[in-house]
Every structure is written in structure tokens, then in C-alpha cells.
Amino acid sequence: MAGTGDSQRPLSRLAGAESGPGSLWSRLQRNPWLLLLLAALLLGAGLGLRVPSNVDEERFLGVALEMLQTGNWLVPHRAGEIYGDKPPLFMWLVGSLVRLGVKPTLALFLPAFFAGIVGTACLYDIARRLWNRRVGLIAGLLFLATYQTHAVLRDGGIDGLLFLWISLALYGLLRHLLLGPAWRWYYLACAAMGLGIISKGVGFLPALLLIPYAFAVRRGWSGVVRMPGQAGRWWLGLLVTLAAIAVWLAPMLIWASLDGGADGRAYLNDILLQQTAKRYANAWQHQEPFWYFFVKVIPQYWLPLLLTLPWMVPAWRRELGKHKGRFLVLLGWVALVLLFFTLSSGKRKLYIFPALPGLVLAIAPLMPWLLRRWFAGRPRARKIFVGVAVVWFVAWFARGFIEPLRDGGNDRQQLMAEVARESQGAELVLTNWREGHWLYAQQPIVHFGLDTPSQAEKAAMWLRQHPQAVAMVRADDIDRCFRRELAKPVEGHHEEDWFLVREDADNGQCHDDSQYSIHEFAWKKPLS
């Protein structure tokens, strides 16, 4: 097999493309910033047309807007109830963008868009430094071609922001471990990991690079930088990480100890233990078998990279046989990230996205060799490959505009507008609600907690004491506490059938003497 030195040959020659001054590849070589423009076009296609379309997006936008309305940026709330599932950094960023005048439904998607641009730049530059400029361009293009890139970075969730910190930390650590010593980049990586942890707990993942790096150093592999006698500098990185975490954690601990009371202690337990270590060890949501990522996720979401594996796996084996430390560090990290998430019973498709940059960097330097092997003596195959690649990128660009038009508006937004009309803006009791019902509420709402049981019973009790209010109850729950003939169905096409009931629809059969919380909330400026 030809080694990574073959990447020094022009990719245009290896792929059979024209290398004249007007070719796209020549322009990319002369102006690599065009790669970032391509990233902006692909990841930004349709930006601003989408509305929050899933419970995660509705939740994070709602929490950010509630922070703005209440002025409480330290403790996130969801419809007046403390929200302890995730640290607040992402919601801070979205709320800050809205305060600066950005439309809320645009502000939600900007962090992931920006992370995609930064991540592409990091991949290009580190691949350029590790190998050469052509490999850097290949790395950027492979990343932008991958299905999961668009699935995550067009989303309005925390994982987009997490990817920003993962990209910066991975870049800084690789500069230090493979091209260093570069202690400033190491400390930047440590700070990025700290910010990643207060975005979503797994922000420490780039630190797993140190495991294959330590093995390579100990065994004397080539391509890694040895830094003996620097224990103090290494440990200083941990302090930098803790300092970044303290940006949020320190004021949170002060609040919990001085003013938080029982709610503060419950919040700290939830955010520091329940939603991190306990959720990882014994997940109560998204439970999947150990083979889930390898059978259900990677075959689809890592296309088209997956198509190169029949050739890449033997090539990697040969590179590792030559004790090439760069491949060991990159592939070892990808394997450790996959192992980390595989060991948890809770799995989601987007969890393994942080491993993608490592895989891209392990593939990119070998792509020139692979292209030459594929296309040697087959000029027609070269033309087909170029045509398919162009169509693939154009399709991703077009999809950014097609998806918002195909999906239309948010069902819960339409539902809550209809509810406001039918109830004439009366106080609304929410039962068995989801985040979109609160986010798009057009009137004052009352609820008993998102996951509290027997909510229809509690709504009946509330209506007896507040006859001016209206309750929104699912069709499946209506007969338990209310007379269906006096309930008014909410018209429209929604994911569930809902009824509006007043106090006169009470069938008198429901009583609830249990202790439960009551939360009241109203948007000062409802989201339309």
C-alpha cells in the first residue's frame, strides 16, 4: 500500500479532474476560505425558515425565553418549574442572541451553525498541519459530506454547541500531542472541555485522546510528541478545566447554599448526579441494546464515509503496523468514544457525533491513495464520482429549503392558537403537556409539573376552585373526570386529540388528596 506520502500528489490528478485555473479544486487550493463558504451554504441553507419542531428544540427555546422574561439566568425554569436536566450555557447563548435582537426561532439554530463553521475550519487546519493543505481540504469536504453533520448541525439542540467545544478541544489537544509542545493550545483545549461540560456533561470526551497518546509515547511510536518532566503543566490543564466549569458552578453552589433551600438542593442533585452519572449508569430514557450504534446509527448517519471502510480498515492496519502514532491516537479516540456511549444503556443517534471528526482525520490522508486505486485506468468512473459528489452536496443544500416547506408549521403552535380562540384567553390548566404547549401558550397557564401523575384529576380539583378557568385534557383522559358531551373538542389536525373543559363538565368522580406543586406562568409577549 502507498503510504500517506501519496497525499502530496494533487488530488485533481488522482481523481482525474481538470486542474486548470478555472477548476473548483484549484480555487479551493488557492483560497481555502471557500471551504468555509461552502460550509456556510450547506449548513445555513434554509436558516430562519424552520421553527422548533421537536420537544428538545421547544424546551431549550422556552427555557431561554423564560430566562429573559424573569431575569433569572442562574437557575433555568420551564413554565415556572425548575429545569434541571441540562446546564444552562446553551440557553444563555440563545437568550443573549434574542436580547441582541435576533428572532427567537433563528437564535435557536445559530449556535449549531456557527459550530459547524468553526468545526470545519479546525478540521482543515489541523489536517493541513499534520499532513498538507490538500488533506486539509479533503477533511473539510468529508465532514461536510457526512449525513450526521447535517442531522446535528441543522438542529436547534445542545449538541451543536457541544460540538463547538469538542472541535476546539480536539484541535488544541492534537496541536499539542502531535505537533507540540504547544501548551497554550493545550490550555485552550482544557478550557473548551470545561465549557463543554457546562453545555452538556460529556464535554470531557476529547480528554480520552490522552489514553492512546500515552500508549504511543510509552511504546515509542512515531508521530507523537514526548514531553517528559512536565507533570506540573499537565495538571494545570485540569485547573483550567475546573475554572471554566466554575463560571456556572460557583455561583450555583453559592445560591444553593444561601438561598436555594430544598429546591436548590434538589436541583443540584438532579443536575450534578441524576442527569449525569446516574443517567449514564442506569438510563431511564432512550434505552437501546449495546449494538445500537453499530447496527442502527453508523450504517446510515456516517454515510458516505462508511463506503470507504473496506479499503480503509486494511490500510489503517498497515499504518498501525508501522507504529504510526497519529493514526493510533485518532482511531483510538474514535474507538473510546464509541465504547463510552455503547456501555451506557441510554443511547441516541446524535451521541456519537463527537467521534466523527476523529474518523474524518483518520480517513482524509489516505483518500488520495484510495481515489487513485479506484480510478486507475477508469476515466468514466472518475467522472461518475465527481458527478455524484456534486449532486450529493447540491441535495444537502436543497434539503435545507425543502424540509421547512414540507414540514410546515409546528402542530403545537397551531393547537395553542386554536385553544386561545376557543377559550377566549381564559386561564388554561395544562394536563399531560409537552414543551410546545407552554412555549406557544397565548394565555396564562397553570400546571402541576411535567411528569406528575393523575393530572386530569388535579385539573378537576383546580376547576372546582377556579370556575373561570379552562382545562385542556387529552381524549384518553376525558371520561375519567369529565362528561364528554360537555367537553369541547379542539378543531384542527394535531398529534393528539384534545378537549377543553370547564367546571360544569365535572362528573364528580375525581378526587386527589396527594401533595403536589402548582405552577402558574404567563408569557408577557407570547411567541407567535
Could you characterize the architecture of this molecule?
One of its GO terms (molecular function) is pentosyltransferase activity. Residues 1-10 have a biased composition (Polar residues). InterPro entries: LipidA_mod_glycosyltrf_83, RgtA/B/C-like. It holds the Pfam family PMT_2. It is found in: Cell membrane. This protein is mainly alpha-helical. It has helices at 11-15, 24-30, 33-44, 55-70, 89-99, 104-107, 110-130, 133-145, 147-153, 158-179, 183-197, 210-219, 231-281, 292-301, 309-321, 325-343, 356-363, 367-375, 379-407, 411-423, 435-439, 455-465, 478-481, and strands at 77-78, 81-82, 428-430, 445-447, 470-474, 488-489, 498-501, 519-521. The N and C termini lie far apart (60 Å). The chain folds into two domains: 32-404, no CATH class; 411-521. It contains 23 helices and eight strands. The strands form two sheets. The protein has a six-stranded mixed sheet, sandwiched between helices. The protein is globular, with a radius of gyration of 26 Å.
Question: Summary?
Answer:
It holds the Pfam family PMT_2. GO terms for molecular function: pentosyltransferase activity. The protein has 528 residues and is mainly alpha-helical.
Mean pLDDT: 89
Quaternary state reads single chain
Q: How many domains comprise the coordinates?
A: 2
Shape: globular
Largest sheet: 6 strands, mixed
Helix content: 55-70%
Please mark out the parts with pLDDT under 50 across 5 or more consecutive residues, or reply none.
4-22
Q: Radius of gyration, Cα only, in angstroms? A: 26 Å
Number of E-state strands: 8
